[in-house]
Design a protein that fits this description.
430 residues, seven-stranded mixed beta sheet, five-stranded mixed beta sheet, 15 helices, binds pyridoxal-5'-phosphate
Length: 430
């Protein structure tokens, strides 16, 4: 493989000292058409393995990937085998890192693959995970049911109770053992409770043992990299389900992790060993998705505001958990203003009267689809208590305001007035 030189046009991030925006760089960054017959778009490198020019190249590439050899200043790691690296994965990782303002990024087979691989890279038997609650059901199962079988336990704090509860939980965790990682999800699903990332970073500093600080890992799936950049607020690693907003078309499953090269080195090693990387075709689809990420996020956010305002004024609706409706004196307000650039487009609302009227609304929808997941081009509605959060005991559901009348909606890029018309006719049947 030829040495790829850093100052090549397709690696440029500035134009006459003007930093180029990610939405501009998505159209070409990290891909040299001349390495692929001039093809404007990156072809799909559907191959398991790569031919070495010489045996020495093969030796050098292995030595590099295993950390025995340092790369030259303009040198990139040679391609070896698609479990370690693949051109499609590398292009999409370079571009994801731009959105996340990260030094580097890794793409995985799913959001859960990214989360599991990151946690396995940092945790060892006897360690404690300090986690926020509520978090995504799959992550909760991993931390609460699976990792304990490997001698890793957890201490949780409530997103709702703010940094105070986080510090209380940190004290409790410290008494039990070494805290190996802090894992937070913000905004939390389904009621958009926020976790203060700066406060989590301070807690991590407080938990330093022998000069080692537990990494702050933030699940940024709900707002995505356009509307929240956790690395700028003190996170060490940001993980995402790329299945949601980044993929954005509800047609793929993938995950991402971004951060510094040093922070991601153990995660990369774990991924190469476990084989939790993304596949070539999905990487190719993600590359296409990244070109329209900002457009889609903005269209969804504009529509979500209109729909949220319609719902807030509707006589059959109680609460609308839309972030920009946070009262000025709410403790989450300054956190929202500091770490989020938008209220995003996924939120929940409560139909008066409980499950039966909520189900009637869901069953009456004509344009909006009844499905779990979020972040796609189409609007989806679901019932957290009966679906995504149905594994939770009743008292937990009540604690997190996951009431029987609660509907979660993820606004797509349809005409917002069409969505309002659909919700309006469905609410008539509540
Ligand atoms: C969907 C989701 C995940 C898991 O992602 P997959 O791609 O389904 O594995 C993790 N965290 C959050 C917040 C999610 O919404």
């Amino acid at each position: 493989m030829e040495t790829r030189v850093a100052e090549k046009k397709w690696r440029k991030r500035t134009l006459n000292n003007r930093p180029l925006k990610p939405e501009t760089l998505m159209m070409g960054y990290g891909y040299d058409p001349m390495l692929s017959e001039g093809s404007l778009k990156p072809p799909q490198f559907q191959t398991s393995t790569f031919v070495f020019k010489t045996a020495q190249d093969g030796k050098d590439f292995f030595a590099t990937i295993q950390g025995r050899r340092k790369l030259g200043p303009d040198e990139e790691p040679g391609l070896i085998y698609s479990r370690f690296n693949n051109p499609n994965l590398e292009v999409v990782e370079d571009r994801l890192a731009l959105w996340d303002e990260a030094e580097t990024a890794l793409v995985f087979a799913s959001g859960m693959a990214a989360i599991s691989t990151a946690l396995l890279a940092y945790l060892r038997p006897g360690d404690i995970i300090l986690q926020s609650r509520p978090i995504y059901g799959g992550t909760e199962t991993l931390i609460h049911s699976i990792l304990p079988e490997f001698g890793i336990s957890q201490v949780a704090f409530e997103a709702e109770l703010g940094a105070e509860d986080m510090r209380r939980a940190a004290e409790e965790a410290k008494k039990k053992g070494r805290v190996g990682a802090i894992f937070i999800e913000t905004p939390a699903n389904p009621t958009n409770a926020l976790v203060d990332i700066q406060a989590a970073r301070k807690v991590s500093e407080m938990l330093t043992v022998d000069g080692k600080r537990p990494p702050v890992i933030v699940d940024n799936t709900m707002l995505g990299p356009v509307y929240s950049t956790p690395l700028l607020h003190g996170a060490d690693i940001v993980v995402m389900s790329l299945t949601k907003y980044v993929g954005g078309h509800s047609d793929l499953i993938a995950g991402g992790a971004s951060g510094s090269k040093a922070m991601l080195a153990p995660v990369r090693r774990m991924r190469s060993t476990l084989g939790t990387m993304g596949d070539t075709h999905t990487a190719w689809l993600l590359m296409r998705s990244l070109e329209t990420l900002k457009l889609r996020m903005e269209a969804g956010a504009v529509g979500a505001r209109k729909v949220a305002e319609f719902l807030r004024d509707h006589p059959k609706i109680d609460n609308v958990w839309y972030l920009d409706f946070l009262p000025d004196d709410h403790p989450d307000r300054p956190v929202h203003e500091r770490q989020n650039n938008s209220a995003g487009s996924t939120f929940s609302f409560e139909v008066k009267g409980g499950e039966a009227p909520a189900f009637r609304v869901l069953d009456a929808l004509q344009v909006i689809k009844l499905a779990v997941s979020l972040g796609g081009t189409e609007t989806l509605a679901s019932h957290p208590a009966a679906m995504t959060h149905s594994g939770m005991p009743a008292e937990e559901l009540a604690k997190y305001s996951i009431t029987p009348g609660l509907i979660r909606i993820s606004i797509g890029i349809e005409d917002p007035d069409d969505l309002i018309a659909d919700l309006s006719q469905a609410l008539d049947k509540a």
